[in-house]
Amino acid sequence: MALTDDFNTAVVRSKELTQRPTNADLLSLYALYKQATEGDVTGDRPGGFDFKAIAKFDAWAERKGISKEKAMEDYVALINALHQTKS
After folding, report:
1. 10 Å Cβ neighbour count for 15?
2. Which domains, ranges and CATH numbers included, belong to the chain?
């Protein structure tokens, strides 16, 4: 239960960053959050010119097979690192 609490705290802390994370960090946060809360990505990769949706899908797909617990741990670690460097 402690990991879930840490994860939920990190989600709240993600909204308290004083500077905007890089696009790469934002994609990592998105993908780790989705992997932790929903598991592996499903559905078809977006097509056309929706580059934002494609990038998000690809970032999440890169985490395929990672356990929800590992995704939570990585999310918490990334938020902690961003708070240390961005605060």
Report:
1. 6
2. 2-86 (1.20.80.10)
